[in-house]
Amino acid sequence: MHRIFDHKKFDNVYNSLIEHGQWNEVPKYYSIYKKRYRTLIKLYSQITSNDKKQKILDIGGGQYALLCERIWQDEAFLADVNDTNFNNLNSLGVHTFKWNLAVEDLELKEKFDVIFFSEVIEHLPVPGHIVLKKLKKLIKPGGYLICTTPNLYRIRNVIFLITGKPIFDYFRFSDNSMGHMLEYSKDHIEWQLSPGQSYLID
Asked: Does any domain span residue 1?
């Protein structure tokens, strides 16, 4: 039986976490993109069973991991290149480890029911299928990868091209937070993803 998504509970948990957490983005970002977080957490509830706790991995800031831990008491893990918020997340029940997915291979005994890979792939200066292959190794049989990324052909990029503004950051390896190194069209990201391993959100 799948989980019931409670909009009110999501709003309460989300607003509390964003107001009191120390995150990678400025607070305004989380108000603007709340709909995306709601959409992905609702999707998560539809693909996971209510019969047992799920083991999840969040690649990035940790908000998805913490939301799932707080709403359903799932076992949550975070992997990020930046460990600035690790102590805060550890104190809230999220297991953390540092991982530069672009350049490092990682052997983990842990396998996950769901991996959140949201708004990250465009920051990595390597072809998407390389990092997706690394993540695939960490997914349990029958598990899911939830991946989102900005659409290369969105209006913002069209305007930037017309006006001569850069779309991408300089293409480089770095241990620090990166800008957008690559962006993907829907067809391109579908090509990068292995069939049957993920849900693609338009």
From this structure: no
